[in-house]
Specification:
about 220 residues; mainly alpha; 5 strands; about 60% helix; about 5% strand
Length: about 220
């Protein structure tokens, strides 16, 4: 039996919901109840669904789904969330899920917490990502992207720093060289990234990717 396109919640999930509500009985408002239930749904029934799919099933605006997802992550995420998003950024780069538009590199990121994580890293160095075209599309310069890579992986950061030093006299050409290199590398066979890859594996693959970018930049700028 279905209710509004949503399967009846399993007994296991019902027990988890009841446990959550009973433990906090008397201290929860309507929004707290919604977040508790939505959190459990995201951990189970809704895990593979997009915000759009959830909105259709629940018959609520997609904007509310996004708001609930964001608040759930704020409330239920632990201190490991930063490491998680560092890994997410690595996976995003390694899977070549970006688009080059004019002089900017664009990523499609629907996760608001992930976007805030990236912007926070950039803001600490006086930088920022542009989302004015579409809130789910993060646009940045090649130099900003190199900065983010440096921040999430120490070894890659050393390689990038050396590259900038090697081409100090051609500093104005470097961002363009990086963009052209990303385009050419993107045409290669997409690197396989295991969904549950360890931080060490991602770091190694990211370092290899940066190495390819550096080699490509050197080749282009030496011509």
């Amino acid at each position: 039996m279905n209710t509004n396109g949503l399967k009846i919640i399993s007994w296991k999930l019902r027990d988890e919901v009841l446990k959550e509500l009973i433990e906090h009985f008397g201290s929860m408002n309507k929004n707290d109840y919604e977040l508790a239930l939505f959190h459990l749904l995201l951990e189970n029934e809704f895990a593979p669904l997009s915000d759009y799919e959830i909105s259709v099933r629940m018959k609520i605006p997609e904007s509310k789904v996004k708001r609930l997802r964001y608040e759930v992550k704020l409330r239920y995420s632990d201190n490991s969330v930063i490491e998680k998003y560092q890994n997410e950024l690595s996976k995003l780069l390694l899977s070549r899920k970006y688009r080059i538009h004019n002089d900017r590199i664009q990523f499609a990121i629907s996760d608001k917490m992930f976007r805030l994580f990236l912007n926070d890293l950039l803001m600490k160095d006086g930088r920022f990502a542009d989302t004015s075209f579409n809130v789910n599309v993060v646009s940045m310069t090649a130099d900003d992207l190199l900065f983010l890579i440096s921040e999430i992986n120490a070894e890659s950061g050393k390689l990038i720093k050396k590259m900038k030093s090697d081409f100090k006299d051609k500093e104005t050409e470097l961002p363009k060289g990086v963009i052209e290199s990303l385009v050419s590398i993107g045409k290669e066979t997409v690197m396989t990234v295991v969904e549950k890859a360890t931080t060490e594996l991602l770091a190694k693959e990211l370092e290899e990717l940066v190495g390819k970018i550096i080699d490509s930049v050197k080749q282009k700028l030496s011509n």
